[in-house]
Amino acid sequence: xxxxxxxxxxxxxxxxxxxxxxxxxxxxxxxxxxxxxxxxxxxxxxxxxxxxxxxxxxxxxxxxxxxxxxxxxxxxxxxxxxxxxxxxxxxxxxxxxxxxxxxxxxxxxxxxxxxxxxxxxxxxxxxxxxxxxxxxxxxxxxxxxxxxxxxxxxxxxxxxxxxxxxxxxxxxxxxxxxx
Length: 179
Known about the structure:
Elements: H1 2-34, E1 42-54, E2 57-68, E3 74-87, H2 91-101, E4 110-111, E5 114-115, E6 119-133, E7 138-147, E8 153-162, E9 170-177
Antiparallel strand pairs: 1-2, 2-7, 3-6, 3-8, 4-5, 8-9
């Protein structure tokens, strides 16, 4: 009789243990989703410098810092960087501004909340990269561009697409004045 009661207690304890384990796994999954632990968390920052090489060329260097501020590794799969002309105003921008002054919709100048500055020909980089960044780590990259001598202000636009989450593109842009 005692063995039968002991067996029932053992079976009941096994059921309780399995139930608690199941609840714990479900709770951990909910916590994982609610806190966003499944997401790539990449912080991008730019530092820009330049040198006048000669009367015809300005050398622009972009230093990019990629920091994984999340809880899981991030693998970068694609990078796109573009140097855009702000000043002097390109003729295409002048025409758009005049259209707005003539009563046309200002939204024709704005795409995704940003003014569409023209790219400086030949001053962009796009391509596959393979960088794995562990949580808390920083990785650095450098990109060089050659600009014409008349450029006074640029917008440097950079975007990075993690391999692990195709919907979590990271974008950074900086306005830089060339003096």
